[in-house]
Every structure is written in structure tokens, then in C-alpha cells.
Amino acid sequence: MDALRVWRASSHFIGFASRAACAAATSRASVSVRIRCCSSSSAASAAAAAELPSTTVAPANPGRRGRNSSSTSDRESIRAIRLKKANSFPSQNSSFFSYEESLLPLEIDDELVIGSSGCARQVAFLSLLFFARVEELRSKGHEPYAYKWTRSHTACQLQDIYSHLANGEECKEDLVSIAGRIIARRAFGKLAFLTLRDDSGTIQLYCEKEILEDQFEQLKTFVDIGDIVGARGSMKKMEKGELSVCVKNFEILTKSLLPLPDKYHGLTDVDKRYRQRYVDMIANHEVADVFRIRAKIVSEIRKTMESLGFIEVETPVLQGAAGGAEARPFVTYHNSLGRNLYLRIATELHLKRMLVGGLEKVFEIGRIFRNEGISTRHNPEFTTIEMYEAYSDYQSMMNMAEEIVTQCALVVHGNLDIDYQGVQISLQRPWRRETMHNLVKEATGIDFDKFKNNLEAAKGVARGILESRSENNDSHLVETCPSVGHVLNEIFETIVEPTLVQPTFVLDYPIEISPLAKPHRRQKGLTERFELYICGREIANAFSELTDPVDQRSRFEEQIKQHNDKRATLVSNSKYVEGENTFDDYSYEVSLDEDFLTSLEYGMPPASGMGLGIDRLVMLLTNSASIRDVIAFPVLKIQH
Amino acid sequence: MADGIEEAANSVSNLSVTNPPAEEAPSKNALKKELKKKKKEEENRLKDEEKKKKAAAMPQSQKPSSADDEDMDPTQYYENRLKVLASVKAAGGNPYPHKFQASMTITEYIEKYRVLNEGDHLKDVEVNIAGRIMNKRTSSSKLFFYDLYGGGLKVQVMADARESDMDEVEFAKYHSGVKRGDIVGICGYPGKSKRGELSIFPKRFTVLSPCLHMMPRQKAGPGIENASVKKNEGKMASDVWVPGMTRNPETYILKDQETRYRQRYLDLMLNHEVRQIFKTRAKIINYIRDFLNKLDFLEVETPMMNMIAGGAAAKPFVTHHNELNMKLFMRIAPELYLKELVVGGLDRVYEIGKQFRNEGIDLTHNPEFTTCEFYMAFADYNDLMALTEEMLSGMVRSLTGGYKIKYHANGVDKDPIEIDFTPPFRRIDMIEGLETMANLSIPKDLSSEAANKYLLDACVKFDVKCPPPQTTTRLLDKLVGHFLEETCVNPTFIINHPEIMSPLAKWHRSKPGLTERFELFVNKHEVCNAYTELNDPVVQRQRFAEQLKDRQSGDDEAMALDETFCTALEYGLPPTGGWGLGVDRLAMLFTDSQNIKEVLLFPAMKPQDEPLTKAESMENKKIMSGIILVSLLKDCLYIHFREASKDRENTLLICTIVEIWILEKTRLASAQIFWPRLISY
């Protein structure tokens, strides 16, 4: 394979030029330089040895081709070529262009971040080249950046409407107009085939010299893969059955200055896919489908909620105190108010105020921010829907969760049996409903009920379980647990959670870890709360809302006390142990939301509420392994 | 005032007259004679009582009979309620039941039973409804009247001991504990009084959530309250506020702005129009979403936290990601990301979402606000103007039924103006318009010193204030504000802005120096901003460089360069029209709100004076005086260095370094309140 690549590389017009060479090239307008860049080292050496077709090119100095310095100059070279191309004469060797398809896959360099000084130089360099080119193009009457194109159809519409044409049949009377990006081209002496892609799909453009006349040379000269083109013509099905637009005239709408990555080999670099999402989307059309499905899911949820009489509201992102969940918030500073503000970590407390105000069914689809690490399941900002309904309880919320998830699955897949990363998931209702205690008992054989409030006994047993069950020693996790409920939760999360693959409602969480849930109407020490798990991931969290302001206040106080205790122990430990990071996790302040408590004192109707993670739902329904696949621009580490 | 009292008196006497017939109704259903007798007696007694009360009430201000403990000091009231709560809990009761299964909402109840004839009682129907009690009238220990509210509408509750499954003593005791503001669930049967008031007659009556605070009352006395309550009585939508109508918060039961905005739930409970504002807001957003979805636009979500705050010119919020140890800015516009998606092949995208700007709070500005931005490939600003006209006029039509809305542009005490959304909207060419209106002839090359001088002189001539930095952009902006925007009451497009004002807009295809851009003004405020997008990467870089120049000359609202975005443009952005709309401003127009806080559920408010502990306030004082000292010092340094070196950028840098050094020395930097300030330099 490598040999093949080298052969291909050397047999084509591959050259390599430093920035200086390129600048020199501009002064010699007749010089035509073809450059491809490739970050694989074998190709690099091939490139250095490459022959040059027509005239000359400044020979590249392989020794100067350090990884970092090369990337910038490579890119500039390509830009330069693209810019030059518009200037080159139509009389050029026509076979020149037919290689475009078979050229080596382009792997664009990894180092995209260019230092500010480099950037300034780049601007200067580019403008130098560009002014000359723009002058020439415009003197010929071509505007490389058009203003507008009126299209009559999308590619997909054309494919539908003219699917009836027989092979070789042409529909001369209809004049259609279409626009999109050129993703493939084959040019022969008097013929050229271009593949154009727009939002909806692809269609072939059939260009004949006899029809296009002067424009044909222009097409062969100026149009590159990656350019955005508008075309008008009639519809014809080729002899081989490919539906095409017989182009009568066309216009370059936007000239692309950078080469597109190869569809099959390009953009395997995961990091780059997220950093330059648009390149990813151009190269892999399926990527955009995820976002189309995402929009569909959100819109379906909205439709479901509105049909049930819920009203959508917007609550603030910037808050004086971040409450409603246990997470480290982002802090910012408002200049004119002269105070710190926190980005919301949940919409809960404000939506509940709406219930107090008499809006009986409310929801908000919105962004939540948590100042925590990033992973395949976590992004610092993510989207949730939270909904609250007066006069209902967590039982009705379970039905709601089933309703929403199955509706979305039906809209996306058309059925309720879906595949997620090779695992078959059945979303057929009803879903399993089981209490947390029973699930833990089932998995470990231990009934946590028997511990009552005997924390030490619970810890001892838990330590035993964790030591025997988990590969990496997690038994330290239980050490800091302040209550039996916390110990139970620890066991649940490490042992049971990963096993909950099929949709399961985990019911009745201990009161110690559910500060906003109403006490269970029958079981002391538990709350009316459930979490929905699918594929070992928490999708939704819901409870019968705590409406008693006195109880709520003491729960908040307990929560703050726990937080401060944890922080205090970590501070004292960190003096001896190198636990900087864990200490950091709890170094933020938790404060009491007095306003919220006051609103509860005005009386909140009995209600239930649910939060559902939209990103995770989209992951599930689009079979995406990472949250970064369903967020258009995920947060990434700073590049070095 | 006298009228008010008389009206109140009438309404009270009405009650006493109409209620007895309502009581009579069951007798038609052939109840026991004895009962009937009893009732007659009671009716008479009732009548007498009411009459007496009426007589007694006339001279003084009236109080509903339940008001006995409402004279109490609010704190004491609250403590009493807490005590009651504790005693219920001690006795093993649960004052907060888990669930009440309402069989219908109050809105549905009214919808279903409003057709009842006066005097009808559907004894064999059983319904469950729940809501909040906003008024209580005690007739006797066996008969209580309540106003039950839900969904902004009211149903009368007539709790009669004989209908209840409690015995009389229990009944009296239970109902005396029910307070105004409590949330209750009622199981009973529907009926209508002779006077036509739709009521429910409870068999079971449960408090679901007690209200521990005294409900605010309208200070003017119950007369007006009754009048306003009457407005919402059992009728659907007849005189209910709808978008496009005027509103007057001065007539609200709860008037105090601070309380209304800080405790929005009280506002919603007491002022029923407020709920309509937020419903209107939701409708506006839904309309936009439907409109765009029908045109095949795709709704997307782009990050709210960025490494660079681009896409607009404004001061961003700064925050910090701990684990990645990364400085992040809250977005000021989603523009650049959305355009990247268009590059990626999503030809029509939009986002409705929050933007954040670290600016002062006033009548039209909140630090976070909602916008809609859409990008449409292969369209230009002419297409977008047509779309804007279609969208806005269609929206007004669907909300109000016509094209005209009423708006108190000059305050609620003046007559409202009428704003006409009939398309097409007026169009003014910015520079031409300014030249005609102000009789100017502005130099063609706006980036020249001469143009700057000319505009500066014009500002002086017309007494248009422009605080420094007096860049050409800002001067023009002020002049346009003074001469053009003032004339834009009905929706008007101001079009073709100069390049220097629009770093992201494409140059005009036929008018050099200008761009293909428009702003839509309604009632002198900008509502939309749109342009043919600049998609030439080289020109884009130049424009960013020019912005950088403005930034260096002190205009910290100029835009920053976003390298990723420029690279995206190099991959080719199709010709695209981009459009942004301020949702809050639009909501203000349609709800006759002069203050942006009216249309935000929880507007940003200045912190209330929270009692600080002594240590805290000492610490704060230290920090504050530190800040003042340091910034003074820095300013001195800055002036000094600038004189000496003329190099602004470096001077600023040196001063900032000095500042940081001082802060570190004084250990003030450790105070958390400090670091974002530093970053803002």
C-alpha cells in the first residue's frame, strides 16, 4: 500500500514549495505550480523528489521541512495554487485536471493554530497573491464571491422528480437551477462530469463543450473540487443511468482556497474532526445527519410537551447562587453590578418558582453548565429538558419519560428496537421498574435495609463488595460517605449501573442523596425519586417535588454541611497527601437559595418534575459513542 | 375613591342577594323539608349579617371577614403559620400531601360548565379540581366562600358544611384554618348561582400546600380588587388581555416593581395579565420556529462558552474552566459558528438562544437576552428583507388578528401610539438618508481622517453627543441615531451601512464603501440586523485587522479575530444571507412593555442589601478600597507612560503588569472577586 502511494505520489504533479518559493512564484505569472501536501513522511520524501510538469518550481529543501514549520507553508502553498489556478491560462494541458480525482488523499496538517505573528505574515502573504488574482478575475468579469443564486430545486428534489426518466432520455423543456459544492470532477477533452452536493444530497453535472462554448474552458480552468457552484440546465439521464443536469450555464459562487480532505482516507484524526467540524461535515456527509436527527428529536420533544399543554419558558443562565444540583459551577463577574455570578447548573429552582406562580405545566429546553472534566459522556455545557407538572407525582413522570423516549425513537428509527454500539436495546413499553435497594440486593445479595443507620457496618460490607467485585480498587470511595444512603449509592453506581442496559427505572433513592425529592409516602428514609438508565447511562432523573419549605431548608442545610465537611477533610488531608485535585473538586462554595425557600413558603402545589439529558438521548438514538459526536462544537483541550 | 367604595358595597350586596337563590336550588331536587327550613332560616340570618356588615363597612375601609388575622404583623403571621404546621406534623399529619388527582384544570372546568343555566346544580357529577385560593369570605361557621384560581381564571367555591363529609365542628375548624394563598384540592359538583356565577360545591376539601406568608393585598382597598377579580370571573377571553393591546402595570394588584421582578411568582399569582405576557413570548418564539421550519431551516445549538467571543462587538463575560485550566468567554453572538455550519453544508440553519453581554442594566438591556439568528445559503439581503416583512407581519397577524398594535411609547400616562406592521416596510438608505435629513455631504472615503473630522464637526453642529473614543464608526452611529432612527416608529429598514460599521457584511455590489446590510427599526429601536455575509476570507481578515485598530484606539467593543472562522471561510462559504432578531425587544413591543424586565421571567437585578457579617463587610471594604487605589494608580501610570512613549498598546501592557504586581503584593488578587477584573484588561 505504501509503495502504491509513493508511486502515485511521484507520478503526479506533486511539488513542494516553501513560502519563499511561492512568493517568488507570484512574480512569475506564467509559472504553474502544483503542490500537494501530505503529512505522512513517505509521501513527503516522494513529494520532494516529485517531477514538475511544465516549467519549473523552486526545489524544496527537505531539511527545512520541520513538522511545525512545514504545516503553515504547505497550507499556504495550496492556497497559493488555488489562487493561481484562476489565473492560469485555459490553454494548459487539459489532462492536468483529470488527475484531480486520483490524487493522493490529503491529510491536512494537525497544527492548525497559527501563532499571531504567523497569522499576520499569512495575511500579508495572502493578500499579496490575492490582489493580483482578484484584479485579473474581475477584469475578466468573474466575481469569485457571488452575491446570490436563485435555485429552483435541491438535488434531492431533482432525484425524486426525474427518477422516471429512461436511460438516455432528456427532459429538454424543464430548465432547472441548482447550487452546491463540487465534490468530484472528471474532465476529458470536450466533456466534464462534476458531482455537486447540497444540503439534501448529490447530483451529477454533465458539461459539454458544444453547449457551454466559452464557458467550458472556464469551467475546466477555474472550477476545483471544493468550490461552490451554481448551474442551470435541463435534466437528462445518462446512458449508464446516472441522473444529471445538462449544464447550459454556470457560475462560480464561492472559490474554495483549501483542498477538501479525501472522503475515504481523510479526517481520521478524531481531534481535528471536532475542532473543524465544518471540514468533517464536508468530508463525511453522515456527520450532518446526526445534527439533522438531533433537531428532529428536540422538535419532537417540544411537540410532545406542547400537545400535553406544557408552556415553554426561559429562566436565567446567570444566577446569584447556583442551585438545583450538586456540581461545581462556573463563576463569572458582572462589571456594572460589581458582583460574581454563577452559570446555572440546573434549571430546577427557577422552574419550580413558576409552579408557585401558578403556571401548572412548564418546561425549559436549555443549556446547563458544569465546571467539571470532559469525557465521552461529559461536556462542560450540555442541553437538558426539565419539566414540571402540578398535581402529579413521580409515577406519572415515568409514563412521561417512556412517552418522550419512545416518540423520539419512532421519529428517528420508525421502530422501538434499536442498536447502540452493537447492543440491541428494546424500548418496548412498559420498561422495568425496580427499587434501588432491590437492584443492589439482586446484584450483591446484600439488603441495605438491614443496616438502618449503622454506617460503620454498611461501610464494612461495602468495602468487601467493592474489593471483590471491581478491578481497580474503589473501596476508598465509601470511606468519605457520610451516611448509609451514600454507601448504597456508591455500590449502586459501581456495581449495578453498568448492568442496566435495557431501559430501567431505578426507584426510591435514599433521602440523604436526594435533597429536592419528597419523602416516600410509605417507606421511611427513602424518597419518591427515579432515575432512568439505558445502556448503563443515566438518561433522566425525576421526583415528586419536595414542597415543604421547612423540610427543604433543613435538607439544604444538611447538603451544605456535607459539602463543607468534605471540603474540610480534604483540606486537612491535602496537607499531607498530594490530593490537590480532589481538594479542588470541592473547593467551591455552596450557598442557600433563600429566594427559592421563600417561594416555597408561599405554597407550591404538589408536583413532579423531570430532567432529561438531550445529548445522551441523541447519542442513544444516533448510535454515537461520544457526546462530542452529537454536539456541533464540543469543548476541547487547548492545543499546543 | 368614593366610586370604588360604592362599587365594592354593591358587589358585596350583590353577593348577599344572589347567594341565597343559589342555596335554594337543591330544594328543587326535593330534599328533605327540614333541611329546607333550616336553610331558609340561615338565609335570612345570612342576609341580615351581610346587611349589617354592609352598613358597618360603609364608613370604614372594608375588610373581608377572613381578614381578622391579616391585621397581624407579617412576621408574626408567618410564625403562627409555622407553628400550626409544626403541630400538624407533630400530630402525625402530612400538611403536604403527595398527590391530588385533578380530573380537569380550572380552565377546562370553566370551558365545560360555563354553559350551565343559572341555578343549575349537577349533583350527580363529581369533579376534582385544584388551584390557589385568592379570596376567602366567611358567611358562618358552616358556609365559606372562596375564589379558586388556576390558569389565570377563577371559580367560586361554596363550601357548605352539609355537603361536606366532615361533621360540622370538624368542618368549621378545618375551614377556619384555611388561609388566603393556600393551594387546595376540591372534590365536588359543579353548579351556577342565580346570578350566573359558576361555582363548585365541595364534598371534600383538602389543603395541598399551605401558604405561610400573608398574600400581598392591593393597598387601595378591596373595592378595586373586587373589580379586578370580577374581570376574570368565569368568562373566557371576553375582556382578557391579548397581544397588541395596551397594558398598565399601574393598575395591578401588586405594583411594586422590585417585588414583581424579584418574586415573579407573586406577580404571576396576583396580576393575571402577567401570565399572558409570557404566553405571548412563548408564542412569538414558536411562530419564528414554525416559520423557519417550514422553509426547511435546521435548528442547531452552538456553544455558549468560547475561547474567543466573536460575531459581534460587545464586552463578554469571562469565566474559567478549572480542570482544563482554560479561560472561556460567554458568547456574545452565535454568528461565527452558524456560518461554519453553512460552510459544512447545512444550507439553512438557525439558533434561538441566549447571548450574554457584560454591560449595564437599563430599560432595554439585560446581561443575558434571547436572539434568533438564521443563515440562508444562496440568498442575499434583499431576500431577507422580504422574509423579514413576511415573518413579522405574519406574526402580528397571528397574534392580534390585524397588522396594528398599540404601544405606550411615551409612558403609560400618555396616549398609546399605533404601530403598523402592514408590509412592505419603509426603506431608508443610511448615508443618503443622513445627508438629506441633516443636509450634509459626507466624504466618500469614510476611513479617512477627513471623514472623521467632518463627522466630528457635524456632531458639534447638531449638538449630538458622542463620548470618546470618537471613531468614525461611533460618530456615524450617533448621527444616525439622532436623525434616522428617531423617524422609525413604524417598522423601517435602514439599509446599506458603510463598511467600517459592518465588519462581517459583504461590500455592496454597486455602491463602493458600503455594505449589503439592513437593520430593522420599530419604535426607534433596533429589532433585526441582517446582511449578505462577507465570504471572501482575505477581505474578512482585513476587516478584522481594521477592527483591531479600533480596539487599540480604545474602543473595546471592536471585534476580535477568530482564526478558526477565517480558515472556515477559506474552505468556501456559499453566498449567504444572515439575519438576527432580538426576541426580547419584539416581546416588549407586542406586550406593551417599556421595560425589558417585563418580558423576562427573572431579570437581572442589582443585589439587594444583604446584611453582611462584620468580618465580611470589613473584608469587602478592604477589597473595594484596594481596587480603587490600584485603578487610580494604574490610570496615573497610564497617563504618565502615554505622554512619554506614545505607544498605546505597550503602555497598557506595562500598566497592567504593574497592576498585577501591586495586587499580588497586597494579596488582593487572592480575593476571588478580583480576577475577572484583571482579565478584562
Automatic annotation (TrEMBL), chain A:
Keywords: Aminoacyl-tRNA synthetase, ATP-binding, Ligase, Metal-binding, Nucleotide-binding, Protein biosynthesis. Residues 55-76 are annotated as: Disordered. Residues 291-634 form the Aminoacyl-transfer RNA synthetases class-II family profile domain. One of its GO terms (cellular component) is mitochondrion. Pfam families: tRNA-synt_2 (PF00152), tRNA_anti-codon (PF01336). GO terms for molecular function: ATP binding; lysine-tRNA ligase activity; metal ion binding; tRNA binding. GO terms for biological process: lysyl-tRNA aminoacylation. The keyword Secreted does not apply. PROSITE patterns: AA_TRNA_LIGASE_II. Its EC number is 6.1.1.6. Coiled coil: none annotated. It catalyses: tRNA(Lys) + L-lysine + ATP = L-lysyl-tRNA(Lys) + AMP + diphosphate. HAMAP family: Lys_tRNA_synth_class2. Belongs to the class-II aminoacyl-tRNA synthetase family. This is Lysine--tRNA ligase. It comes from Musa troglodytarum (fe'i banana). The lineage of its organism: Eukaryota, Viridiplantae, Streptophyta, Embryophyta, Tracheophyta.
TrEMBL record, chain B:
Transmembrane segments: none annotated. Its main location: cytoplasm. Keywords: Aminoacyl-tRNA synthetase, ATP-binding, Cytoplasm, Ligase, Nucleotide-binding, Protein biosynthesis. It is an enzyme of class 6 (ligase). Pfam families: tRNA-synt_2, tRNA_anti-codon. Residues 10-19 have a biased composition (Polar residues). Residues 278-607 form the Aminoacyl-transfer RNA synthetases class-II family profile domain. Its EC number is 6.1.1.6. It catalyses: tRNA(Lys) + L-lysine + ATP = L-lysyl-tRNA(Lys) + AMP + diphosphate. GO terms for molecular function: ATP binding; lysine-tRNA ligase activity; tRNA binding. It comes from the Eukaryota. Belongs to the class-II aminoacyl-tRNA synthetase family. This is Lysine--tRNA ligase. It comes from Musa troglodytarum.
